[in-house]
Amino acid sequence: MLLPQLRLALDAGRPARALVPLGDVVISHGHMDHVLGLPAWASQRQLNGIPGGRVYVPRSIAEGVAALLATCARLEGGRPYDVEVIPVAPGEVRPLRRGFEVRFFSTSHWVETLGCCVEWVRRRLRPELAGLAPDELRRRQAAGETVTEDVRTPLVAYLADTGPEVFAAEPWLAEVEVLVVECTFLRPSELERARKFGHMHLDDLVERAPALRNRHLVLTHLSRRHRLAPGSRLIRAALAPQLAAQLHLLNVEWE
Ligand SMILES: [Zn+2]
Ligand SMILES: [Zn+2]
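Above: inputs. Below: predicted complex with zinc ion.
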């Protein structure tokens, strides 16, 4: 998923033209449907003379991702790509463009996987100091008092690949403005498979839908077992009546 306003990509499953200008890429985990676009991104940036890409990855795959990019650059016969691979752990926060930060958390997939949340951070005067004269505020500041505080608004949470356990571990997900969540499996017979491999089943979302207070719910990652049109109809029919949020289906047909 691409957020061009923040120059941020949430995973890079396949090469895409729109990915190239984005300087920050979060790779949630090492599965190819989340990684394969990364070498093309790095290569195209080098070709176009765009410096300084950053890739945020779980610690367990940092070495592998760096080696993948180094190998691809070597294959091309050129210089190493100007890309920094940055290992991150759950709980860490990294800056994006001014006023925005990305915070990482664990999801419940069958390999280590990081979800992330884009937060809008604005600084304001501490409420108890409201009404003080500017001179007084400057005096207090000069004396070492902290007169401002950061207000954080979670805007977009991306759950990458995950089972439903993440909702209990991160209850704030029910409040974030835009919740991007996978919905891999749809049929009752696929519930066991969803549990085994740490994926979300449509029934998991239907069960939790009444508690979700998000403005937008974006579903991704539909299994190849499902055709797009009937799958979408099934999802809408089951979920839309339970849901206050606006429902968006971001799946694309496999080529
Ligand atoms: Zn996966
Ligand atoms: Zn996946």
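Residues 162-255 form a domain with the Metallo-beta-lactamase; Chain A fold (CATH 3.60.15.10).
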